[in-house]
Amino acid sequence: MAPEFRPDGRLHGACVGILAGGGPLPAQVARAVEQAGGRVFIIGFQGFAEPGVIGHWPHRMVRLAAAGDILSGLHAHGCRDLVLIGPVKRPSLGSLRPDATGARILARIGRALFAGDDGLLGAIVRVLGEEGFTVRGAHEFLPGSVARRGVLGAVGPDASACSDIVLGRDVVRQLGRLDIGQGCVVQGGLVLAVEALEGTDRMLERVGSLRQPDRPGGVLVKMAKPGQERRADLPTIGPRTVAGAMAAGLRGIAMEAGATLITDPAACIAMADEAGLFLAGIGSGDEKII
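User: That's the sequence. What structure does it adopt?
Assistant: C-alpha cells below.
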C-alpha cells in the first residue's frame, strides 16, 4: 500500500522519491517530507539538478533517459510515492541515449514524446503509475508556497493594471489550450511577449527592449494550462522572476491562485514591496480577478 500524506501533516509509510530538476524546490519538498515524518531519496537529473541543493539528502545523479538506474534507485530505497519537481529542458531525441529500460519506457510513452509539454508530462505520470508508483504534486507537500487569492504584498494593481491582467489571462488561456506556454506580458493593452519554450526568465529579458515608454509598466501573467497535469510543471515564480520583472520595467506579477508555486514567498513579497511592484493571486475563469 502506498504511503499516505494526510491533512494533519504526517507522512506514513515508505520513502518519498523526488525526481529533481533545477532550482530550490527539490530541497524544499525534501525538507517538507522530513518535517512530516518521512524520508526521501532524490534522483537528480544530470545537467539540471544542482548538487549543492540536493546534496544534503540521499541522492543519485542520473542521466535523464537512464530509466534503469532511476527505477532501481527508487525501488532500492523503498520509494512508492514520487514528486517531479524543478525545471528540466526538453532534450533532443538524439541526445537522450536511453538505456534498455529507458527505451522500453520511451516506446510506452509513444506519440506523446513528440507532443507538447503537457501531453508528455501526462504520459510520464501515467507510465510511472504503471510502474507501481503514486505521483504526487509538489503542492501537496508545500501548501504554504501555493499562491493564494488576492494581493500578496503591500502594493495592489490599479484599474489599468487589472485591465492588462484580464487581457493577459485570456492570452494565457489560449496559449495553454495549444500547450505552448504559461505566461505573457501585457502593457497598456498591448501584448509585448508570450512564453514558449524559452521559459519565463528569457521572456522577461526580451520584454525589457519591447517596453513602451509612453505607457505604464507592463504586467506578467502566469497561469496553469487548461486541463494541465498538476502533478508536474505547475507555474512557478521566485526571487529571480521578481528581479526579472523589475529589470524589465514591469509594475506587477499576476499568478493563478491555487495553481502557482512561489519558491520563496517571503523574499518575493519583500523584493516586490521594496520595488513598488504588486504580486497578486488571480482567479482562472471569468470571475472577478482578485
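The two ends are 41 Å apart (CA to CA).
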